[in-house]
Structures are given as structure tokens and as C-alpha cells.
Amino acid sequence: MFRLKPFAIVILIIILLGQVIFAKESFATVHVNQEVNQLDEAGSVNKYHTEGITGKGIKIAILDTGVDLKNEDITFKKGINFTSGEVTDFADRNGHGTKIAGIIGARKNGEGLIGIAPESDLYICKVANDSGKVSFDGLMKGLDWAVEQEVDIINISLEFGDGDKALKKAIDRAINQHIIVIASSGNIRAKGDMFKAYPGAYPDVISVGMLNLQGEIYAAEFKEKKVDIYAPGEDLTSTYFDNKLTLDTGVSYATAYASGFAALVVEGKRADGDVVNRETIIKTMKADLNQGIDGAPWYIYTGVVLNMVTIGGLLILGVYSVMYYRKTIPRQWPVRMIWTILMIMITLNIAGRLTVYFLSK
């Protein structure tokens, strides 16, 4: 009779366990030397960084409360202020803009935080005052300034409860210059709160919803808003005054995460000679970032299904092995069938992961 030898069992277990272990990075805030890596529940940020894709050469305009000029973790190319007559005073006295800038592009310098796109070029535009208030006029000026700087991405972690025709035209001017505009879909302030946040609600803007630490959609209301993309937004590590780090939760920070990640996608696609536009950015981000239960393309869950099948197969194999070597199984036990099933499992694992890889390109 064809027997399942012990060494064959060991080899198969190693192969199948490898499929499970390396299919998905565990999520955690990890300390490397003296620096903190950003939350990476899906493992995709680390994958890009390992491939040398860190946002280099990608220009990101941050329209917010300015930036802490003394922060050692944040460098920028240019800055401007539209909240007062002092155009050169874009210092952050609120903290929000500094947090956004750090999540997006905190430098890898041996201390503090490593941003999602640590080598991106940051353009700081102060459109919200020290109390965090922003006007349509200020935001429009910021958008036009970002267009003048020929940036690749505009991050707007701010929101209005209503739209504005002039603001929409400013957004359109940026879009027409092939700039990726990413904006908050608005925080959920109470149960059932599904208000539209502008400019995130405009069709050509990439609106961002929020995931919790477990990679699940933070609140059901985001589904009703029909956001374009979900990104981590709970307990993100952020830069702050006096070179301190904080943990923050909110759609503003999920938006910053999405903007930083978009920079990685843009750099990667340009290097491959691929088309870069709103649709390709959204498709790639949906594939690379965990999108919660309902938000992701069907093939994103292939790895999870394969892992479950593999673990089930290993458990059956373990029980079978114990029974076989204790001679409690009759000789007619279908050993050949077990071998066939194991080969099918390995084939499905390989084929499934190749499918996910090519569909997410």
C-alpha cells in the first residue's frame, strides 16, 4: 500500500505553514532603533519600503493648520499662509497640521516617527487658523497655490458641511492638472450621522473613510457615505510639538495615511511606466490596503480563505497521522486521496496568491 511517510508529512507541513505565515504581516506599532514605524495592518507599507519605494520625488501639498517649524522629524520644500496677511507665517500653533504632516512624511532620521512616504516632498499650506477654522476662500487659495507648485497629491484633512460653487471650480482646476485630491469624508459625530463632508463629497475627489485597529470599518455610517477608500485611522502615531509623538484617532488621520500611501502607489506606478490617475490609484489602494468587510475587491479575501482551508487541512492531516501510526485506521483508508487533496491544496495556494498578485497590479 502507498504509505504517507513521516518525512513527507514534515515537508508538507512546512510548505503549508509557510503559506499561512507569510501571507499577511501582523499589525503593530513597531520600534526600530529609536524610530517608530506607522501602523501597517495590511503589511503593504512595509512591502513598498522594502522595495525601495518611499515616496521619493512625489510632491504632496498639505492644506491644514501649518506645521511645527522646529520639528526634527518634518522637512518641507515650501510653505505659505492664507489665514492672515503674514504669508510667510505658516507655523502651526494648533497641532493638527503637524500631525498630518508627520503621518504622511515624517523622515527616517534615527528618531521619532517614520511616515508612510518618508522621502516625499511636502508643501505646507496654512489654510486653517490657530483655532482650526478654515474658510472657503482660504481653501481655494491653497488649492490654487498647490496647482502652481505642480504637486502630485493634495491632502485635505478638513471639511465643510456644505459645498460651494467656487470651491468646486478650484477643485476642478487641480483635477484638470492631473493632481490627485484626497479629502476626509467627515468624522462620525453621533450614531446615524451621515452628513456629506466637502470637498470630500465631490465626485472627482478621493474621499476617505476610516478603519479601526483590527482593520474593520470604524463605523457603519461610512458605508452609507459610500466613500472611495478606507484607511487606518485609529490610534495612529503622529508627530507633535516639542518633538513628541502622540496617538490620534479620526478621519483626518486616515486621510493623511491615504495620501502618504497614494504617494507610494504613484512612485511605484511611474517606475513601472503605468498610467497614474484617480481610478488606478483607488484600485491599487483597495487592493493593497485592508478595506474592512465590505469595501475591498473580492480577490483580497482569497488569502484569508486559503489560510482557513490550509489550517483545516493541516488539522485533518495531524489527526490522521496520529490514528495511522497507532494503527487505528483500517487498511482501506484512502491514503492516495489524502495525497491528492494535499497536492490540490498546495496548487490552490500558489494559484490563489498569484491571482491576487496579478489582479492587484
From TrEMBL:
InterPro entries: Peptidase_S8/S53_dom, Peptidase_S8/S53_dom_sf, Peptidase_S8_Asp-AS, Peptidase_S8_His-AS, Peptidase_S8_subtilisin-like, Peptidase_S8_subtilisin-rel. It comes from the Bacteria. Residues 55-286 form the Peptidase S8/S53 domain. The active site is at D64 (charge relay system), H96 (charge relay system), S252 (charge relay system). Pfam families: Peptidase_S8. The chain crosses the membrane at residues 298-325, 337-359. Keywords: Hydrolase, Membrane, Protease, Serine protease, Transmembrane, Transmembrane helix. Belongs to the peptidase S8 family. This is Peptidase S8/S53 domain-containing protein.
